[in-house]
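Sequence in, structure out.
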Amino acid sequence: MSGHSKWANIQHRKGRQDAKRSNLWTKLVREIIVAARLGGGDPDTNSRLRLALVKARAGNVPKDTINNAILKGTGQLEGVSYEEVRYEGYGVGGAALIIDCTTDNRVRTVADVRHALTKNGGNMGTEGSVSFMFKHVGEFLFAPGTSEDAVMEAALEAGADDVVTDPDDGSVEVTCDPSAFDAVTKAFEAAGLTPEMSEITYKALNETVLTGDDAAKMQKLIDALEDLDDVQQVYTSAVFDDEE
C-alpha cells in the first residue's frame, strides 16, 4: 500500500480545503458560536472554543466577527440558535463516513446531506452504523524530517498515547485522548515544535484505500458534503493513493 502516506493525504486535504474558501468563514463562525454556547466565552477555560479561535484566525476571520460570534454563543448578542447533529453513511468502495453538522433546521440539513450522498454514489446509514469504526482522538502531524525523539519526549510527558513515524515519508504522527489535547498542545509550544496539523478528530480504525476512478468519485462526494454550509466536518475511512 505504498503511496497513500498520511502526509500525502493530509497535504491533499489541506490543499482542497484552502481552495474552497466560499463557505469557510460560515463554518468557522458557527463553530465559535456552538463552542461558546456549550462551554462559555472564555477560551482559557473552554478548550473547544480555544481551538475554534485558532482556526478562525488562521482562516483570516475578522476580529469583530470572532468577537460577535462569541457574544452570540453566550447569549449576550442576539443570533441564530444552532444545534449539532451527526449523520453516518457510506461512500464509494464502502468507505465509512461521519458527517458532523451545525444547523438551525434539521429537516433541511438531513435532506441536503442525503441528496449529496445519493447523487455521488453514497448512502445514508443509521445512527451507530459506522461510528464504531472510528476512535475519538487528538491528533498532531509533524512534517517529514522532524525529530521523532523531540516530539516523543514532549508528547509522552504531556499524556499522549502514541507517537509513530511513517516509514515511507518520515512524517511523525501523535495521538492522544481528547482530554489531553490541550496539555499536549502546550507541551509542543514549550518545546518549540509546530505541527503541520493539529485537531480533535475521529480517526478510522481501518483505512479504505481508493485508487483511480473510485478515488476521484469519493473525493467528489466529500467535496459535495463539505460544500454544504451546514456541514462542519467530514470524517472518513477513505485514503487516496498517490498514483492518481
